[in-house]
Amino acid sequence: MTSHLPVSRRTTLAALSATAALAALPARGAAPVDPVFRHGVASGDPDATSVVLWTRVTAAAPVEVTWEVASDARFARIVRSGTFATGPERDFTVKPLAEGLAPGGRYFYRFRLGGAVSPVGQTRTLPVGALDRLGIALASCSNYAFGHFTAYGAIARDPAVDFVLHTGDYIYEYGADGWGADISRRLGRVHQPAHEIVSLADYRTRHAQYKTDAGAQAMHAAKPLLACWDDHESANNPWTGGAQNHQADKEGDWAARRAASIQAYFEWMPVREPVPGRSRMQFWRTWAFGDLATLSTLETRHTARALQIDYEPYRKTIASFADAAAMERDAIGAPGRTMLAPELEADLAQAWARSRELGQPWRLIGNPMPIARTRVPDVVALGLIPDPATQAKPLPAAQDLAWKGKWNLPFYTDTWDGYEWARERLYAQARSAGVNDLIFLTGDSHSFWANRLADASGQPVGIELGTAGISSPGDFVESGFDPATARRLDAALAEHNPEVLWTDNLHQGFVRLELRRDAARATFVAVDTVLRPQANTSVLSQWRISRSGTALALDRSR
Length: 558
Hints:
Layout (H helix, E strand, L loop, with lengths): L8 H15 L17 E4 L6 E6 L6 E8 L7 E9 L6 E2 L2 E2 L7 E8 L2 E2 L3 E4 L9 E6 L10 H7 L6 E4 L14 H7 L12 H11 L3 H9 L2 E3 L10 E2 L2 E2 L4 H4 L2 H15 L17 E4 L3 E5 L23 H12 L9 H16 L4 E6 L28 H11 L13 H13 L5 E5 L5 E7 L5 E7 L8 H4 L4 H14 L3 E5 L3 E8 L4 E8 L9 E12 L2 E6 L2
Parallel strand pairs: 10-11, 11-12, 16-17, 17-18, 18-20
Antiparallel strand pairs: 1-2, 2-5, 2-6, 3-4, 3-7, 7-8, 7-9, 10-22, 13-14, 15-16, 19-20, 19-21, 22-23, 23-24, 24-25
Helix pairs in contact: 2-5, 4-7
């Protein structure tokens, strides 16, 4: 496909430099140099002069690990080094903050313990000042049980990607007999521990297992990570007072389980500790990329989320469109159903004001779950699926879609569609800041999306780019629909919903977003398999993002 973006000498040289640097990294699928560093290396959460480095050592007692940062892959010019003490109190993870680095710098790093040397990683700091190009890979939903993280490997090898944004579901909490169990047994990727994870030891073990995947190790070694979490890092569909997949009578206190999940996350991920006055649970970030873009992530699970609306009580009470509208107005749309903490809202306002001061053309939101309005069309009336009432053994998913489609209801109530008051509050905040050109980078749904966003009055808010799962399957296919029906359901969603321009639930992969000053390009990249460690990639769709007055235009490339 033809690029609509100008390529300057400066950006061409940057791409060549990235390609050369990748050549210095281990070949894809290569094993770690030493079993002491069996979980690989990672970096992330950078600012202009520092970056978090990460590894984990396999040791029997507390140790002191040496780390080194160099400006070259052969470590002839070491620019920073130090030691980091670790032991069982932090699960032998090593997480130094490498400081005193140059803005916009590219660096190599490694760790040493005795005679053992870790794989070499590559990282970078945030640029300051003039910047004419930025490449971000959007990733989400990596479920070890469902297959290999081949899309991570593809991201590692992509020279157009500077940073990786992971919007959550980095791990899954289910036990070995849970979601994906049959596939995991065939592939030899059965979840450890075998039970659903609840304790600190459980969450540590699960993180450790996910860090053994070859694709994950390659991506983390090649690119710095920008991260937020969604639900499965703790348990499915949490809110401030509990979670759908937490049963207090069997699994104990929710607050204790949530604290264990957060501790393990901060041990095993290359993320900074909170600044004074903030807690680990207040996990949101803002990164500024020179004069080109600002990226802010959202925390939507533990600090403010109201209890989700469950459709189940309404399945027998809704008998008309008036009933459905009343339910949406009085339950889903009830005032005060919050999603974002006040401190997060204040930080967003500050980030947007600073972005405008810098003259940045792009403001990005790392968004854990879909925000576009997505209602279910009448799939039975459209002839997309048979009427479940006429079937002896209808698919549960078909029954669910048929009921929602009959009353034109939102697809899911765990997404922003279940929090209309909170969504409008966020949009109003952006509008009051003079911002109606946000780019939401979204995970969670296991589908690709290209969406054009508007508030309740129809005023433009921005666009949404959603990524499919790294390995988690699309809902329609996983629910038992054949590929042809799943494809027709995708088309019907796009036809029925004004905000949805295109969607695909048939593939796994990632989104590559390339920003330049006057335009941007979104490329939806699919992998051809997650059932083997190696995969090929293909481009499903490309979209050009440009200005239309003060708003954004999203157009499919031809």
